[in-house]
């Protein structure tokens, strides 16, 4: 059987897990879908998903395999979340034009502390047979003896085959540097699978479609060393209806951690998705049942906005909690559908002493996070995209004085029609 989902139109799975994943469009490729399906009918199966610590938060595109793992756990299987304390020292070269910046041990630990917060929101951790566990590959990679690694593991890898993988071939064909350090990455990731198979009986690795080559290497290594069959499973590379990579916007990454992106802005990201994306996103990023999703995606015209609000609230509730989701929904209703200032908007507090001599509108845009720099703020103002309590301010040199920024004053500052903050003076 071919390894892509489009090649299985008439095949019917037996396991609850595959029956759950397939209609929600999680599955893109599998090394042996029938073999994996059989393995998932034999009781709780340990399955792993790995993340290198390249940033202190995940973005929403990274949530696709996390949500896939959430569904596998709900179907009775055991998630293993692997953080790359060891592999982050090298960096995955997959489909990159250049090498990743080298991170210090302190950077890696700070990033691990940031991303591990995400997993507890979507998975249940504990000591039970289907409870998730979190492990760090530095635990074994830091202890590797290089000569033993070459002799026992390296001999199972063919250079001819490795340079044939798309992620390597692209770099070489474009005459882009691929360091020996990076070339070893795929060996180390394969070794992770072997180690997790030995320690936990791990039977499958999940990942995005860009990890396919690395996953295949791990499946092959486990087979060659142990004689056991394990499986690889990837999610599709998710793009929006406009062709943009999921989790990326004109303003940058849509971060999952609330210290990177407030709940209101997270809610707004989902609310502002394209009509064509609503059904897909409901299937992947919420726990709603398929019958409800089919009803919502069938809505047309202005009614589709109701489905977008359901998507926004359910996706936000999973990540930020139900209370934050309800606050974000109320704030959006205040801003876009009513005349209130929106008390649940992200709040920026301005000290009264700082406002006595006036503050420029460009400064306030930067302080509120609505623009990254003053020059970007001025361009926004010149273009008519800056609003104060709904009124356009087109003077890029505009300064707000004590007549506006007085003790107790509260102003809604907007960048375009989608991003807002509440300025409070105290």
Describe the structure.
- The protein has three domains: 5-235, HUPs (Rossmann fold); 262-337, Tyrosyl-Transfer RNA Synthetase, CATH 1.10.240.10; 347-425, Structural Genomics Hypothetical 15.5 Kd Protein In mrcA-pckA Intergenic Region, Chain A (Roll).
- It has helices at 16-21, 33-39, 63-74, 105-122, 138-141, 146-152, 159-162, 166-173, 180-183, 185-200, 212-226, 263-271, 278-285, 290-297, 304-320, 322-337, 352-355, 361-367, 374-382; strands at residues 29-30, 46-52, 78-84, 133-136, 204-208, 231-235, 248-249, 252-253, 347-350, 359-360, 386-388, 391-392, 399-400, 410-415, 419-425.
- The longest helix is centred in the first third of the chain and has 18 residues, at 105-122.
- The protein starts with 15 loop residues before the first helix and ends with a strand.
- The model has no long low-confidence stretch (mean pLDDT 85).
- It is of the alpha/beta class and 426 residues long.
- 39% of the residues are buried.
- Strand 11 (386-388) and strand 12 form a beta hairpin.
- It has a six-stranded mixed sheet with strand order 1-6-5-2-3-4, with helices on both faces.
- Helices cover 42% and strands 14% of the residues.
- L-tyrosine binds at residues 48, 185, 189.
């Amino acid at each position: 059987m071919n390894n892509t989902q489009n090649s299985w139109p008439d095949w019917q799975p037996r396991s609850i897990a595959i029956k759950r994943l397939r209609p929600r469009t999680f599955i893109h490729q599998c090394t042996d879908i029938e073999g994996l399906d059989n393995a998932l009918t034999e009781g709780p199966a340990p399955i792993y998903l790995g993340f290198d610590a390249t940033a202190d938060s995940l973005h929403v595109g990274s949530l696709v395999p996390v949500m896939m793992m959430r569904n596998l756990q709900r179907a009775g299987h055991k998630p293993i979340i692997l953080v790359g304390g060891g592999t982050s020292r090298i960096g995955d070269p997959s489909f990159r034009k250049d090498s990743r910046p080298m991170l210090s041990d302190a950077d890696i630990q700070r990033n691990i502390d940031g991303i591990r917060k995400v997993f507890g929101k979507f998975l249940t951790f504990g000591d039970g047979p289907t409870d998730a566990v979190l492990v760090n590959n530095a635990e074994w990679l830091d202890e590797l003896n290089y000569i033993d690694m070459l002799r026992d593991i390296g001999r199972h890898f063919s250079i001819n085959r490795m340079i044939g993988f798309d992620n390597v071939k692209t770099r070489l064909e474009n005459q882009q540097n691929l360091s020996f350090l990076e070339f070893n990455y795929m060996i180390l990731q394969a070794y992770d699978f072997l180690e997790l198979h030995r320690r936990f009986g791990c039977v499958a690795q999940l990942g995005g479609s860009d990890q396919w080559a690395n996953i295949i290497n791990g499946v092959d290594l486990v087979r060659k060393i142990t004689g056991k069959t394990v499986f690889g499973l990837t999610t599709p590379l998710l793009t929006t209806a406009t062709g943009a990579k999921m989790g990326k916007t004109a303003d940058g990454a849509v971060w999952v951690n609330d210290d990177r992106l407030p709940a209101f802005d997270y809610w707004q990201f989902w609310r502002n998705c394209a009509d064509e994306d609503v059904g897909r996103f409901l299937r992947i990023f919420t726990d709603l049942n398929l019958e409800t999703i089919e009803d919502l995606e069938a809505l047309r015209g202005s009614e589709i906005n109701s489905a977008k609000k359901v998507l926004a609230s359910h996706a936000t509730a999973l990540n930020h909690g139900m209370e934050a989701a309800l606050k974000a929904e109320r704030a959006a209703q205040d801003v876009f559908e009513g005349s209130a200032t929106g008390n649940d908007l992200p709040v920026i507090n301005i000290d009264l002493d700082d406002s006595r001599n006036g503050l420029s509108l460009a400064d306030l845009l930067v302080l509120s996070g609505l623009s990254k720099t003053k020059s970007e703020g001025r361009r926004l103002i010149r273009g008519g995209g800056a609003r104060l309590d709904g009124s356009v301010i087109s003077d890029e040199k505009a300064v707000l004085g004590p007549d506006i920024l007085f003790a107790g004053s509260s102003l809604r500052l907007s960048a375009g029609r989608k991003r807002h903050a509440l300025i409070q003076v105290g």
